Amino acid sequence: MKLKKLTALGLTLALSASLLAGCSNSTPGGATNTPAPSGSQSGGETTGETIKVAAIETSYGTEVWQQVADAFTEQTGIQVELTVDKKLEDVIGPAMQGGEYPDVIHLATGREAGLTEQFIKDHNIAEITDVLSMTVPGEDVTVGEKIIPGFVNDSSITNPYADGKTYLAPMFYSPCGLFYNKGLFEEKGWEVPTTWDEMWELGDKAAAEDISLFTYPTTGYFDAFFYALMYEAGGEDFFFDATHYAEGIWDTDAAKLAFDTVAKLATYTNPITPAQANDQDFTQNQQLVLDNKALFMPNGTWIVGEMAEAPRAEGFEWGMTALPALTEGGDRYSYTFFEQMWIPAGAEHVDAAKQFIAFMYSDTAANLFAAAGAAQPVTGIVDQLSGDNQIFYGIYDDGAKAALGSFASYKSVAGLGTVREVFFDPVNSLVSGSMTEQEWIDSIKAASDQMRANIQ
Question: According to the UniProt record, where is the region Disordered (predicted)?
Fold first, then answer.
């Protein structure tokens, strides 16, 4: 099924009514392995079954996961052994290599370790299409009826094999864009650019005051950035062909426009960025914006909670904008990022795991996560919005279009890297000057030939 068949208008309207937490790892702390209390729980039948749930620790912390696990046990009687860690891959990886898998894993694609992508490539994820028709535990509505339209149907992020089946459940989501200090713009009397030509003019003006135009937390954040840019460069058809590695796609005018924009932006990027663009030091790049050492960075709405305790310049105030248009009057896009939850094919308790995923869309779970700053893609979540999130999610009301989708999954091939390694990691080298734009393009072309031949 083609990604470009998504109902963009319906999705855009739905997205303007939502909220999210994030993909980055910032909350301090280690793993929590806390089994839920045993025994009969009111509201649910004791089954004697225990499932293992492993979740990445992000800006909304660990406590909310235990609250949701306890609520699930109370409703179903199924016990939960919970592991939450900001380096989840390191915690669960060794056991999985030995054949012991969690029953449920909450871990998004696009991370440096690429664990979720590896499971997708190896077809080691259980199909969960039937979860969409399951009744949400404790409610009289199905999961499919609760999920905002557009988050499952035809999306390569949840249906990676284009076989009409769902393998990854959409979880916390956020509009992504360029974040900046509104206070600085007001102080300087600067306007937020609406075109890339205006962006370059502002970059020159800021450089005269020793301020870089741009930074990024890690190259992983270029996925949302580049997807939105591809939509701007060539529209829906180009995005579909590019993300499916169509032959000759990287020689088109649209591709050149996208490549040229990233390459030029690299010359306007704070030079310290590549050294800090890793999963340990990425907050130091984010700090560049808070310290007025860089104007813009790509990110999602979770950034506010993630940097809540960080020092900042006097008068700092978060702002967010869609990518500038490539041409005067052209479309502007904001990518919609969402995390995924999935069941390893080797999980021991698949049926109970599916119940847990179904419960994640309950009002109980959604309200608990919303209180912690995270949003499920469920209808009615707009009622939980407040403060900055009202402004951030208004990006679609202000004329930005929603971009959704990702590069198609491909089989594991010796020597062929992940999408991040092929497309986005080289941005570090573009910034440092150790790679030219043409070398980047040539490497993408070579990798795309292999990706296309091995597409799932």
Answer: 27-46
Q: What digits encode the pLDDT tens for the residues 55-99?
A: 999 878 899 999 999 999 999 999 999 999 999 999 999 999 999
Cβ proximity of 321 and 256 under 8 Å: no
**Distance from C-alpha of 428 to C-alpha of 211, rounded to nearest angstrom:** 19
pLDDT class of 394 with cuts at 50, 70, 90: low
Three-class secondary structure of residue 73 per DSSP: helix
Pairing of β 294-300 and β 212-214? parallel
Verify that 100 and 226 share a domain, yes or no: no
Domain count, the chain: 2
Burial class from Cβ neighbours inside 10 Å (0-12, 13-18, 19+) for residue 144 reads: middle
pLDDT over 90, % of the chain: 69
CA distance 453 to 456: 9
Same domain, 206 and 307: yes
Query: What is the tens place of the pLDDT at every residue in 222-262?
Result: 999 999 999 999 998 999 999 999 999 999 999 999 999 99
Dist CA 387 CA 390 (whole Å): 6
Domain limits for position 345:
50-174+336-396
